[in-house]
Specification:
Blueprint lengths: L8 H58 L12 H20 L5
Helix pairs in contact: 1-2
Length: about 100
């Protein structure tokens, strides 16, 4: 039979506290670090994607204003803005429909 020593109550309490602390760190702090990294990359990517879409919409507006000749001049000068507004709204609608809850 193995030689078993009985530990004093403070030793058992210290071991229990260390075990509880290690377990809590393993189950809470470590997963939160992973979530933080995931969240940081997601926010950074969405920010860059948003800036890119805005710049593409502005370039489309500029192209409509300069490359269509005299089509959108005078009382029709608002049409390029409306076209870009519709395209932007369509992109937002597509993005919103892609946000779904996975079951």
């Amino acid at each position: 039979m193995p030689d078993t020593q009985e530990k004093s109550l403070p030793e058992v309490g210290n071991e229990l506290w260390a075990l509880t602390k290690t377990y809590a760190r393993q189950e809470t702090v470590d997963p939160l670090k992973g979530v933080g990294r995931y969240l940081a990359f997601g926010l950074g990517g969405s920010l860059l994607l948003g800036i890119g879409v805005v710049l593409l919409l502005l370039s489309g507006l500029r192209a409509l204003q300069t490359q269509t000749g005299s089509t959108f001049t005078g009382s029709w000068s608002w049409v390029p803005y409306f076209i870009i507004l519709v395209v932007g709204a369509a992109l937002i609608a597509v993005a919103v429909t892609r946000i779904t809850k996975k079951s």
